[in-house]
Amino acid sequence: MSMPIQLRPLGLAAVALAAVTLCGCSALGLSHSVDVAVPTHAAPLPNTAPPPVNGAIFQASQYRPLFEDHRARLVGDTITVQIIEKVSAIQKSTSTIDKSGKVSAGLTAVPLLPASLLSRTSATGNSANTFEGKGSTENTNDFSGVITATVTDVLPNGHLLISGEKQIGVNDNIDVLRFSGQVDPRSIQAGNSVASAQIANVRLEHKGRGAQADAQIIGWLARFFLTVLPI
After folding, report:
1. Which residues are bridge partners to 209 per DSSP?
2. Can you tell me whether residue 136 is helix, strand or coil?
3. What does the alpha-carbon distance between residue 208 and residue 178 come to, in Å, rounded to a whole number?
4. Would the pLDDT of 102 be above 80?
5. Per-residue pLDDT averaged across 141-170, rounded?
6. Is 129 helix (H, G, I), strand (E, B) or coil?
């Protein structure tokens, strides 16, 4: 004979607390990152083998203009990116609504009633409605630096897909800079450099790892209560 299992109030509270804890902990390990093209440490090898050498002086797979300074053209070439990103956006809005009304009424004559009684009979009404709202949003981003990226692929139209990564470690702190984008060869300046403002589909990430980065992250217990508490 089986007996139904009954949970005491203390057991129910423990089960509920465990469920809430699991739900809160599921949101503690969230990490936000930029979708930078990978790999950033080295250019991948071409999928197709280079065409055989036909004995001619001109080779399309290794062509570089004779009277031109070195510029990135092929997979594996490097290019210097001048990162100059300045973005500023300001949005303000103001709304005001004001409405008022007034009503008055009185009686001057009523059958079978003397006029002396009607002299004190009057009705008045007032209404007012006021609304005022203001909103302001401001965002400013200023980033500058230099990074050397590697050509990872060449599109059919000649555009270069580049990606690069720079890591600097001092003691127990590591500073990581990652960059990727699409470069039009005509935008490459003398000295094999290009400004980030002339690169399409830019992905830029600057993060730190170590004690300094950990000091700027809210603790897991505080994040748990921020996730669970409704206010």
Report:
1. 174
2. strand
3. 11
4. yes
5. 89
6. strand
The pLDDT of 127-135, averaged and rounded, is 84
| Nearest partner of 179 among 87, 89, 84, 86, judged by Cα | 84
SS3 222: helix
Token output for 59: 């080779």
- Contacts of 24 by beta carbon, 8 Å cutoff, 6+ apart: 224, 225, 227, 228
CA angle 121, 122, 127 (to 5 degrees): 155
Residues 6+ apart with CB under 8 A from 148: 78, 79, 80, 81, 164
**Chain length of the chain:** 231
Residue type, 62: Q
How many Cβ atoms sit within 10 Å of the Cβ of residue 145? 15
Structure tokens belonging to residue 95: 């709304």
Query: What residue ranges do the domains of the chain occupy?
Result: 63-88+147-228
Give the confidence band of 218 by pLDDT, cuts at 50, 70, 90: confident
As to burial, measured by CB atoms within 10 angstroms (0-12 exposed, 13-18 middle, 19+ buried), residue 43 is buried
The structure tokens 């004559």 sit at 109
How far is residue 150's CA from residue 80's CA, in Å, rounded to a whole number?
9
